[in-house]
Amino acid sequence: MPRQLNIRSDEAYKLAHRLAKKRGQTVTEVVTQALRAQKPPAGAKREVPRKQAEETFRQLLALSEIGGRRKKPGASSDHTDLYDEFGLPK
């Protein structure tokens, strides 16, 4: 059974039905074509330029190193004392 998509917009309803009638297509066909037209083509540019992504990653690594140096002595991410042998809370 096909899935359903419900859009609660009077404007979208009018536009879709008007275009479907004009093209001699179903509303489903019109909406599907419109959504496909919005899909970025294969090989499209990244949303974030590579250099910007690399710089952001470098900054996150630097912050991670700073945070690691501020760890209190004896601090740990080990929480086994809170769970039983089945992984359930004690």
> Biggest sheet, in brief?
none
Total DSSP helices? 3
Total E-strand runs: 0
* Model regions low in confidence, pLDDT < 50 over at least 5 residues: none
Strand content: under 5%
- Which sequence of SSEs, written as H and E, runs from N to C? HHH
Task: Write a brief structural summary.
The chain has helices at 10-23, 27-38, 50-69. It has 90 residues and is mainly α.
Kindly list the characteristics that best describe this protein:
51% helix; 0% strand; 90 residues; mainly alpha
What does this protein structure show overall?
The protein has 3 helices and no strands. By secondary structure, it is mainly alpha-helical. The chain has a domain at 7-39. The two termini are 45 Å apart. The model has no long low-confidence stretch (mean pLDDT 89).
List the helices and strands and how they pair.
Layout: H1 10-23, H2 27-38, H3 50-69
Helix pairs in contact: 1-2
